[in-house]
Amino acid sequence: MYEMKPEYLTNIPLIDEEHQQLFDYANQIYDLLHQEFIADKYDNIADILGKLRDYTKKHFADEEAYMESIQYKRLFSQKVQHNAFIQKLEEWDLESIDGSDNQDATIQEMLNFLTDWLIHHILELDTQIGK
Ligand SMILES: [Fe+2]
Questions:
Q1: Which of 93, 16, 100, 109 is closest to 59 using CA atoms?
Q2: Dihedral sign, Cα of residue 48, residue 6, residue 15, residue 86
Q3: 6, 126 Cβ separation under 8 angstroms
Q4: What fold does the segment set 6-129 form as a domain?
Q5: How many angstroms is it from 2 CA to the middle of ligand 1?
């Protein structure tokens, strides 16, 4: 399961809480991946992806507003990464798993992408904001 580790903390409460919520979405995807008795996971993954897209936009808007409020120097590189991530989530092709008998492969791919991105982005960029 994915959880916030001490090294992921920015020590900005709102940002840390929102990062925790993003990890919770990763955990929902993980749980879905390991559900053996759902024959068709399309509706479930579409539901989680929809919520993840909305929440991600809210989180990035909050984080960017905070960075602006402190006139943070690396705001631009943050925005570039945020926009690329939103784009990737928007483009995620769920049609390919509708009716597929290999849905778990796509769900695993989504989970890997999400957790890799989150961990790298938080460790390399977001933890700098609090410093
Ligand atoms: Fe960020």
A1: 16
A2: negative
A3: no
A4: Four Helix Bundle (Hemerythrin (Met), subunit A) (1.20.120)
A5: 18
Buried b / exposed e over 27-49, threshold 16 CB at 10 Å, is ebbbebbeeeeeeebbebbeebb
Mean pLDDT (the chain) is 94
* Residue type (1 letter), 58: K
Within the chain, what is the greatest distance between any pair of CA atoms? 50
> Any idea where the domains of the chain sit in the sequence?
6-129
Token readout for 28 is 């929902």
pLDDT in tens, 48-84: 999 999 999 999 999 999 999 999 999 999 999 999 9
Rounded distance, CA 110 to CA 107, Å?
5
97: DSSP letter: G
Q: How far is the CA of 100 from the centre of ligand 1 (A)?
A: 34
74 close to 125: Cβ distance less than 8 angstroms? yes
Cα–ligand 1 centroid distance for 122 (angstroms): 6
